[in-house]
Amino acid sequence: MKISVDNLKKSFGDRCIWSDIDLTFTSDEIVTIAGKSGQGKTTFLRCLNGLETYDAGTVAFDGEVMPVGTTDAKKIGMVFQGYYLFPKMTVWENILLAPLYHGIDRKEAEERAERLMKELEIYEEKDKYPKNLSGGQQQRVAIVRACMLEPEILCFDEPTSALDSETIDKLAQTMGRLKEKGMGMIVVTHDRAFAERISDRILHFEEGRLREEIVA
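The structure assignment produced for this chain is given below.
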């Protein structure tokens, strides 16, 4: 799968956050978006996911231009910085919500959930509520939930911000396994060491412009 971004521009009021953004993402790579706070990194990620509108340009999935403010949840997924797990639902209920909403057969959804949860070592927590999980466990639940529709590219917003070094290491391993299974990733992070460890490419937003470096 390929995401093509052409001449994208985003403003808040009279302030232009970024403009003339031309990029291509594919489902065989991990791309990191870096830069100082206020550069519009998370906003860019939300535009790709249809959670934010933009002023000009296009976002296309495999050549199909998506209307502004829309996306295809079966092609691109999102793991939010705050995870956004529903507190009154168990882990199992949180994970099954999206596939059942999108009309996936319950038995198929449950089998997919069990497989993914076991792969990410979270299955034993399936009957717990989010408040009873550690930050790392909540993140793995959020990753499983985002993978339930089997997107080809998965976005992460600041995935290491609340994790200790051991959990960050496990996250990097998880991302590596997802890539091996054919899932591309777009990651917003302030953690330079983490970016260098996981990325094929690193993009920098600076004063409304973009520069790119290839990771050796």
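Interim note for the steering committee: The longest strand covers residues 15-26. The mean pLDDT is 93.
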